[in-house]
Design goal:
By secondary structure, the chain is mainly beta. The chain is built from 4 helices and 43 strands. Helices cover 8% and strands 40% of the residues. A hairpin with a 5-residue loop joins strand 15 and strand 16.
C-alpha cells in the first residue's frame, strides 16, 4: 500500500511539472508570446454649430498628453473662438488652444464661442523684484476666457527660486503654477512669486537694523558692526511678508536707499558675509518716506521760513530752493507740525548760492525747540552759509532738533567772539554730517568748527578743516567722546586724527 501511494505522488508531480513547462515549451518551439495590443482612444473636435472644418480627430494610446489645437477653419459669424469644452453649452472646463490634457478615454470636445461684443481685459505679469530678465508679455483676453499661466520666461532673481504667480505682490493671495488655467473676469496683474534659496549659517551673529526716512525719496539704514564680517547684504520689500530683494552688498554699516516713492513704507533686512558663510537675516526694520516736497510761500527767505513756522502739517517736507545769493538777519527755523523736514538748497549743484548773515549779530539759523520731540529736521545741501566777525555761533541745534549737512553745503567765515562754537553749536540736539565742509570758522574758546554742549554728532562723510580757536581745538565736546560723537565713516583728506579737545587735528589750528 505504501508503494502505491509513492507511485501516485510521483505521477502527480510529473503532471504538474509538465503543465508548468508548457509556456517554456511553447516559447522554445514557437517563439515569445505576443504582447497585448495597446489601448487606444479617439479625441474628436466638434465645431459646435460653426461653419468650416473642425481640426482632425486624434487617435492615441492611453496616457498620451495632447495639446489642444486652434479652431482650424471654423467660422462663426459674430462670435469669437475661446477654446474647447466637453460640454457643448460650456458648463465644464474650457481649454484654450495650446493647453494640454492626458487622454484616458474617448473624448469629444466642442468649440466654444463668445459674443464678440463681450468686454476684453488685460492680464499683466509683474517681475516683482526680479534682478534680471523680462516678464511674459501681457495678454488681452475676452471676459470669461481662460488663459494658460506662463512660466517665468527670462526672469531671474538672485538667491530666489521662481515658484509661480500670485494675485498679490506679497504672495498672500491665490497662487497659480505655470501651465495651470486662469479664467479672466477683469483686468488683473499677476506677480512673480520667489522662494528664498539662501543657505544661511545660524551660528553667525545677526546685526540689529534700524531705518529712518531722510526725505521723500531716501531712507537711511544703519546697523551694528559684526567683528567677523567681510561685507553686508541689504534686502528690501514692499511689505513685511513680501519677497525681500537684495539691493546692495557693501562694506559699511550704513546705507542710504535712494530713488524711492514719496509717502511709502519700505521694509528692510540685512545679513552678514563671513568666512563661515552668510548669517541669518536681521529682524525687519521699516520706514516711511516723507510726502512729496512742498514749496513754501513767500518772496524772500525770511517770508518762507515764517510761513513754515506757522504751519501745523505733519509728515511733510518743505523744499526751499535758493535762486540768488542774499543776506538775511538771524532766522529761527521751526514748525508746528510733527515729523517735518525743511530743506535749504540751491537750484543747481553747478551754481551754488550763498546765504550771508546781515549786519545784525546772532545765529544765521537757530533751529529752535519747543521742548517736545516732534521729529523736526533742518537740512542744507549745495548752499553756502557765511557768517561774520564779532558774532555768535552761526548755526544752533537745540534740544529734540536735527541738523543735517549734505553734499555741496558749506559753513564758513564766522567768528564767535564771546561763546563756544564758531560754526555749529549742538545744544542737546543731533547733527548728521553726510558731506560738505565746515571751514574757516573761529571761536573765542572751544570748538572753532563744532561745539557739542549736549547731544550727538553722527559723521558719515564731509570735511572739517581750517577752523581756528583762541584756546582749545576746532572740534570740542563737553562730554565723553564715545557718548557724543559717532563715526560712521573714516576719511583722510584734511582730517588725520580723531577730533576732540585733547587731540591735535593738523588742518585745524589754534592761535597759541
Amino acid at each position: 500500500m505504501k508503494k502505491i501511494n509513492i507511485a501516485y505522488f510521483i505521477l502527480i508531480k510529473t503532471l504538474i511539472m509538465m503543465l508548468s513547462g508548457c509556456d517554456e515549451m511553447a516559447t522554445l518551439f514557437h517563439g515569445a508570446k505576443p504582447e497585448d495590443p495597446p489601448v487606444t482612444y479617439t479625441v474628436i473636435f466638434d465645431g459646435n454649430g460653426a461653419g468650416g472644418s473642425a481640426p482632425l480627430a486624434q487617435t492615441v494610446n492611453t496616457g498620451t498628453v495632447i495639446h489642444f489645437p486652434d479652431k482650424g477653419s471654423l467660422i462663426n459669424m459674430g462670435y469669437i473662438f475661446t477654446g474647447w469644452n466637453m460640454n457643448s453649452s460650456g458648463g465644464g472646463i474650457t481649454y484654450p488652444a495650446g493647453a494640454s490634457i492626458t487622454v484616458t478615454q474617448n473624448m469629444v470636445f466642442y468649440a466654444q464661442w463668445l459674443d464678440s461684443s463681450a468686454p476684453q481685459y488685460t492680464v499683466t505679469f509683474n517681475a516683482n523684484g526680479a534682478t534680471s530678465g523680462s516678464p511674459p508679455a501681457a495678454e488681452i483676453v475676452y471676459s470669461g476666457v481662460s488663459i494658460t499661466i506662463p512660466d517665468q520666461g527670462s526672469l531671474t532673481n538672485m538667491g530666489y527660486t521662481f515658484t509661480g504667480w500670485n494675485v498679490s505682490a506679497d504672495g498672500l493671495g491665490t497662487n497659480y503654477v505655470a501651465g495651470s488655467l486662469f479664467m479672466v473676469a477683469t483686468d488683473v496683474t499677476l506677480y512673480a512669486k520667489w522662494e528664498n534659496q539662501t543657505n544661511e549659517n545660524p551660528s553667525i551673529p545677526v546685526p540689529f537694523l534700524s531705518a529712518s526716512a531722510k526725505s521723500s525719496t531716501d531712507i537711511m539704514l544703519s546697523w551694528n558692526s559684526i567683528a567677523t564680517s567681510s561685507s553686508y547684504n541689504v534686502f528690501r520689500a514692499s511689505s513685511e511678508n513680501a519677497p525681500y530683494i537684495q539691493i546692495a552688498t557693501i562694506n559699511e554699516i550704513t546705507y542710504i536707499d535712494t530713488g524711492l516713492n514719496p509717502n511709502t513704507t519700505y521694509y528692510y533686512m540685512v545679513s552678514v558675509n563671513t568666512d563661515l558663510g552668510i548669517s541669518n537675516r536681521s529682524k525687519v526694520a521699516s520706514a516711511r518716506t516723507m510726502s512729496a516736497p512742498v514749496v513754501p510761500q513767500g518772496a524772500t527767505l525770511a517770508e518762507k521760513f515764517a510761513w513754515i513756522a506757522n504751519r501745523a502739517d505733519n509728515n511733510v517736507v518743505y523744499d526751499i530752493v535758493v535762486t540768488q545769493s542774499e543776506a538775511i538777519e538771524p532766522t529761527t527755523v521751526s514748525s508746528k507740525g510733527r515729523n517735518v523736514t525743511v530743506i535749504l538748497r540751491s537750484a543747481s549743484s553747478d551754481d551754488i548760492k550763498t546765504i550771508t548773515l546781515s549786519s545784525k549779530t546772532g545765529s544765521l539759523f537757530d533751529i529752535e525747540t519747543d521742548g517736545y520731540d516732534n521729529g523736526f529736521t533742518f537740512k542744507i545741501e549745495n548752499i553756502i552759509l557765511r557768517g561774520k566777525s564779532n558774532n555768535s555761533v552761526l548755526v544752533t541745534v537745540s534740544r529734540y532738533r536735527t541738523f543735517e549737512i549734505g553734499e555741496g553745503a558749506e559753513i564758513t567765515e564766522n567768528t564767535n567772539s564771546s561763546r563756544n562754537g564758531g560754526g555749529v553749536l549742538v545744544d542737546s540736539g543731533i547733527m548728521n554730517i553726510y558731506g560738505g565742509k565746515i571751514h574757516g570758522n573761529r571761536a573765542n574758546s572751544y570748538g572753532g568748527g563744532i561745539y557739542i554742549s549736549e547731544g550727538t554728532v553722527n559723521i558719515y562723510g564731509g570735511i572739517i578743516h581750517g577752523n581756528r580757536l583762541d584756546c582749545r581745538s576746532a572740534f570740542y565736546q563737553s562730554k565723553s567722546f564715545s557718548r557724543n560723537i559717532k563715526w560712521h565713516y573714516l576719511w583722510y583728506q584734511y582730517m588725520e586724527s580723531l577730533v576732540c579737545w585733547q587731540f591735535l587735528v593738523w588742518s585745524n589750528y589754534n592761535s597759541h
